[in-house]
Amino acid sequence: MTTTTDRLNERATAPAAGQDADHGTAAARAAGLVEPRTRLQTPRPRALALTLRTLGPLALLGGWALASATGALTQDVLASPAQVAEAVGELWGNGQLADALTVSLTRAGLGLLIGATTGLVLGVVTGFFRLGEELLDSAVQVLRTVPFLALVPLFMVWFGITETAKVALIGVATTFPMYVSTSGGVRNTDRKLIEAMRSFGLGRWAIVRTVVLPGALPALLSGLRLSMTLSVIALIAAEEINSTEGIGYLMAQAQNYSRTDILAVCILIYGLLGLTADGVVRLLERVLMPWRKVTQGAAR
Amino acid sequence: MSTTPTTTAASTSTATEAAPAVHLRGLRRVFGNRAVLDGVDLSIDRGEFVALLGASGTGKTTLLRILGALDRADGGTVLVPPVRTVVFQEPRLVPSKRVLANVTVGLPRGAATRETGLKALAEVGLDRHADAWPATLSGGEAQRAALARALVREPQLLLLDEPFAALDALTRLRMQDLVGDLVRRHRPAVLLVTHDVDEAVRLADRVAVLRDGGLVRDERVTVERPRDPADPAFADLRRRLLADLGVH
Known about the structure:
The structure holds 2 protein chains of 2 kinds. Chain A is mainly alpha-helical.
């Protein structure tokens, strides 16, 4: 009985008397207590993250410059960075690069717009409506397994050497990643939320607009990312085979004259297009989903 | 002759009882420029059941998260036992694992683990649901599975973060009895964070009230067990605790 009251007293006075507190701490340590080890992400300065991100590309560039300077990489294999920069200046000066970029970007953009929209609509229909899935899914899955490169000869027969053939090829290539991601994302929508919205009298399309699409946005955007990458790949395929303008045409010309500097410029442009596409999706993620950052940041 | 062993047994039992399980001195935690916890001192002995009360936003969950190593302290001494488990307000079961796998998650695989998992499920009355998917359980069942998951590790400190808050009133009463029962059997030190005064008085050996970053009350519950809300001592303590929480 007395020991209990003693302990209670000690507990009550401990914070006042510093020595007692130290004594208690030592006793607690002796009893095998440990400090909890937290594994928390410490906030990192933005500049550091940015630096780390640019480190990889810079290392590649450095390696390329070094190989060119030491003679390990001769000009008939690949031009040096300086020569490539020179070629950019030359192509930009005579307007060739700007023209080619405009043409190529129009093709890729148009194809992507058509393909992503088709994929989005098909994905929502099969993901949300059971009848849609039963009717469409197996057909789309069959089409999806056809490599889009196999369609090139067929499209040439159908459309000839026209813009339509190129845009259609890019459209077909970009449809399927968008479709797969969308239908998956839509299928994962919270059923309870749909039920709640239904009880408030929302119709099917209103539910798709207010709940399903915002909920599926992460999946939609990752599908868009894949589609964007594929649009550049399909662009190369379309332009390499038959074209009279665009980056692919520029490359074909450079190949005929063994201009490795121009070839390198074109390859870099393709790479930059992919990088830009990725950046655009990242930006979209931030702009389109403002509610996401709030819940993830404050993990209390 | 016979008295000597009895006294030794008694003294060793008090010795283990007196050994601390939680030792907090001057704990501080600051969010932005607001000190949610500002010099909290709290000790919990082994096998002791402490209920921490507080209005919402007073930092009681933060304190629990610091003890569970889910949040960091900005100052002060924090000492806890090496084996701690948490039951959260939501069950937090992994939807892709069956109930038994959820209970034994992270434990070494083997027949013995399966056995202990099943035993833990039997203790919470869920042994028939061992192969069910978590999504098929009711709220109370899922929370019991979460309790089994916490107890199967034989924790020296069990942290309960408003574990009954999302349950209906009847299930809550049943769960409180179950928790009281299991804690008496396993004897871990328990910190129950709640805003339900009745729950705190029903279950705890000691109640503490957190307000304005510090403990404004830390007292032993002297109400006779089994605790009846009709008991005048119960009503008296409840009135005082509610006053501490700003409800009159």
